[in-house]
Each structure stands twice: as C-alpha cells, then as structure tokens.
Amino acid sequence: MARGVLVVAEIDVYKEWLGIPEGERPPDHYTLLRLVMFEDDPEKVNSNYRKLNSHVRKFATGQYLKPSQVLLTELAKAMLCLTDTDSKREYDASLGREAEEEVIDDEVTTTLLYLVSRGVITRGQITDIEHFADARGLSIRDAVIQMKLADQVEAAQALAAELRMQFVDLEEMFPEDNVLDGLPRNVVKRHTCLPLFEDGGRLLVACANEASPELEDEVRMRFGMPMKGVMAVPRQINQAIAMHYAPGTRTEAAAVGGSDRDSKAVEKKKKSAKMTDNASTIRKRKTPLTDEEKAHRRNISLIVLCWSIILPVVVMNTLTDTGGLMQAVITVSCAAVIAGGLKLFY
C-alpha cells in the first residue's frame, strides 16, 4: 500500500467510502473533508470531519481495520491543519491561494469568558465560580464541572481556547502503535498525556493541561522531533492510557525515529544499575562482622571440629580390618573436613 493511497483489494476507499471522484491520490485536505476549496469556517471543517469520522469508523473491522485507521488519521490531520490559523495559511499558500493581509488577533480570552461567549454560563456567574475555585483549590475548569455548569468537553474546550491550543476528541482518534511504543507508561501517566501520531514533522500529543517543558524535552529526545500539544478531556486521556498501556506493557520505550540514542541511554542505565548492584554486594561482603556474628561462626566451627575428630575415630574402630588404602582415604577425608572447619573459624 503506497503511502497516502488507500487501496484494499482493488477498492479505492477514498471513492468507495468518502465518495471522492477519481483523481489525485491522496486528495487535498479540502477534498478529503468534502469542503469547498479554501473553506475558512472552522465550525464547518469540524462538522464535516465528525460526520466523515463517524462514517469511516463503520468500516473499522476485519480486513478493513488497518486501512480505516489510516484514513481516520488522515482525516484528523486534515482537520487539525484547517482549524489552525497558521497551519491553514501555509497550506493554502502551497495550493496557490494568494496571500491575504494577516489579521493579528490580540484578543485575550479566558476559560470563563469563552464559556460566556458560548452561552454555557453568564457573566453574573463568573465571581461565584472564581470564589468556588479559590475556596477548594481547584482550577477554573474543574470548578465549572463540579458546579455542574459545564460538562467535561465544554470545560476542556474553554481551557484550550485560553491556552490557544487545539481541542481533540480522543474517541474519534486512533493513536499509532509505533508512537505509543516510543513513550513509556510512566511518562504518559506522570504528565497525563497520550501520543497520537506524527503530523508535519511534529509529534501530536493529547494533554490534559498545557504541556510542560519537561514533557517537550522528553518527546524531542525520544522521537527526534518537537511536539505539538493539543487539549483533550482528562478522563478520555486516562481511559486511553488504561486501554493502550495495560500494566506491564510499554514500560520502556522502543526505538522510534530519532530515539536510537534513547535506547542506548536506557541500556547504559541498565548496565550502570547492574554495576552499582555488584559494587553494593562487594561492599556488603567487606563489611566487618559484628561480635554476635563472630561468636555464632565460632560456635559452628567448634561443632564442625568436634565432629571431624569423632567421626574418623568411630569409622576407624568400625573398619578394623580395612586395608591401608582405605585408611588413607579416610584420613584425607577427615583432613578436608578439619580444613573446612578451620576456614569457617577464621
């Protein structure tokens, strides 16, 4: 299957599933999302994306499972590109759209003002929400949820608007296995995030909050590329982690893309830990014995010495007719027992 061209058993899924006439493969983002060329309304883009996503998911079974997941990822990438102002401008220019005068949006919005603009809350409720959040040490997002003024999706979308991040619905996306393999379980749980797929030279990562510099450095080191954080509902992220990172799986990162250095680093850490354990064992062996341990060893040695004397005497008396060779063997054996006892003693 050629990259970007989905043909299964001679079926052109772009045509059969999305109704796109024969032509350029893969189709451009606007054609893929069944939009008019250079559509500027992000609501229209999102609406078409959700409809097509729901339709393609019907084929996500049997022999069409893998192709449908690849197509769903293509749809997601197209949607993310056309709903991001900077990405859309660059993409439109690549399709020959004449550059328009850039409009700089300096308007500052907050989670609460976004919810007001969407009619989710009223301005009169802002003060009550802020007091509720301060009294309980909650974020504004969690406060409006606990006060049952907004659902989790609305609250996450509002926070995304404040942080100028894009919002994604994880129920509509399939993270790629090789990307999941590249970020171990302890990292995604610590940062409450989920790696999704590579998009335009950046790794798309769904986050519950604004990505920390630590997470950005982790992704760059492991994948050899910068990350692009997108906002998602925390509950969806945790559910996805439970699904894709079952206990005991993906505890260590596999080598992905530019992450060979990370694999070597992991191996180096293992060797270092092993050397540390060995050194610790050696130190333990060289630790002086306590008086109680010395007394215990001395008692055991004395017992061994006593038996090493009594045993050969009993054997010699029993085997009075034993030849010289047998007596010599018994004598050597007794000497070995005595030597062992003396070794314990010292």
Give me the count of strands: 5
Nearest-integer average pLDDT = 82
Strand order of the largest sheet: 3-4-5
Superfamily (CATH H level) name of the largest domain: Type II secretion system, protein E, N-terminal domain
- For the termini, the CA-CA separation is 74 Å
Oligomeric composition of the shown chains:
single chain
**What Rg is obtained from the alpha carbons, in whole angstroms?**
35 Å
Supply the number of structural domains: 4
Poorly predicted segments: 258-263, 279-287
CATH topology of the largest domain: GMP Synthetase, Chain A, domain 3
Helices and strands, with pairings:
Layout: E1 7-8, E2 11-12, H1 13-18, H2 29-32, H3 42-56, H4 65-82, H5 85-94, H6 111-117, H7 126-136, H8 140-146, H9 152-163, H10 177-182, H11 185-191, E3 193-199, E4 202-207, H12 213-223, E5 227-231, H13 234-244, H14 260-286, H15 291-318, H16 324-345
Parallel strand pairs: 4-5
Antiparallel strand pairs: 1-2, 3-4
Q: Features of this protein?
A:
single chain; 346 residues; mainly alpha; GMP Synthetase, Chain A, domain 3; 4 domains; three-stranded mixed beta sheet; two-stranded antiparallel ribbon
